[in-house]
Amino acid sequence: MTRLTGEEVAHLHEQYVLQPWAKQGAPAIPVERAEGIYFWDYDGNRYADMSSQMVCSNLGHQNKVVVEAIKRQADELCYIAPSFAVEPRGRLAKLLVDIAGADHFQRVFFTLGGSDSNENAIEIARFYTGRPKILSCYRSYHGSTLGSAFASGDWRRFAYETGGAAPSFVHFLNPSVYEDGFDRTEEDEARCTRQYLRQLEEQIRYEGPETIAAVLMESIVGANGVLIPPKGYMEGVAKLCHDNGILLICDEVMAGFARSGKMFTWQNFDLVPDLITFAKGVTGATVPLGGVIASKEISAFFEEHPLPCGLTYSGHPLACAAGVAATQYYLDNDICGHVKQLEGVLKPALEEFAQRHACVGEARCIGLFAALTLVVDKNTRELMAPYHTANGRMPTIFAELKRRGFYTFGRESNLNVCPPLIITEDELREQLAVLDDVLTWADRKFCN
Ligand code: PLP
Q1: Which ipTM score applies to this complex?
Q2: Given a cut of 90, is residue 160 above it in pLDDT?
């Protein structure tokens, strides 16, 4: 087969592919190759991937160890149904249980991505507790299958709700410290935590705790702007769950796999969830894979009751082989240590941008999981793009970054900085300089 030109690739995409979350027919960059933190278009233009695509290419592009593992598995056995025992499936399940903590977790249900990991976690929680309701945050995203979309809080759920709001999905407001008018001082964080926990406690009381199967939360909200919770908030939510016999499901789809400097982001908090959902980083996005890690109690329950979940490709051998290789890569190369070290570069740099740039309201960073909230006015905290309003400012800023070879994404007024976790200090500093320049340009263009 002859290779297509960049123009032909772009044309096919524009004409035939339904592009997610977008109007159709818009031009897309035709990508010829990718390596490490970079990808290239057919004209040889290089882009630094400062979002790890959709915060999933955690190990950079074309990690050789993972690619080799996929090739080996493809030669050996591409597919065997989920009911058979196969080496990479069992190996990966054990590896993930060990990372989560074998004293508390026992079994893994494999899915194909993040949405269906949440979908199945919801089903497991309902079946296990015999309760219907799922509580989740407005400031969240959990996926785009029906259940995971109904559980999502941001406006991406609206299209799903045109068929009628789903029964037994209840949202509560989770804190966004800066947007809610709080500062990152000890007193303000404590006040913020108290306020939001009191509201949640009331909401649980009014919903009826005996009707609530689970609280589903991103361990740190990702796509809605890396919302690092105020101190004590996550522990408070876990306690409310525990006191009311409600399961806690931590969504680690974006936050997991060393992104925050721990293999799972909930490990930064003093809590242990009952179910963990994961995807993206488990294979470094080389092959689609997701899943649900279940506590010992829930795992034991399903020794007595058949699991009411199943997928043809659950534990697909190719995906699990990639999962074993990638997960082992994080551990063998101390990616968490590297991330913590580079947090020491990224966090102060972004905080300094927030001091110096008129358009940066707040910088948030844990590990290599970071976002800036952009504003037009720092004094009033007026956002660059208020919630669910279309204005051209943020797209213009992203386009300017892209023009300068810095690729990232963000929602509303947030600009995410989530590079591949294998980025070097020099590469990071080089890209921070580009971001700095574009912020200076945005200060002049948009700020009062
Ligand atoms: N959960 C979170 C926290 C996510 O960020 C995403 C996707 O970005 C999902 C779930 C859905 O995952 P997927 O797109 O793999 O279905």
Answers
A1: 0.99
A2: no
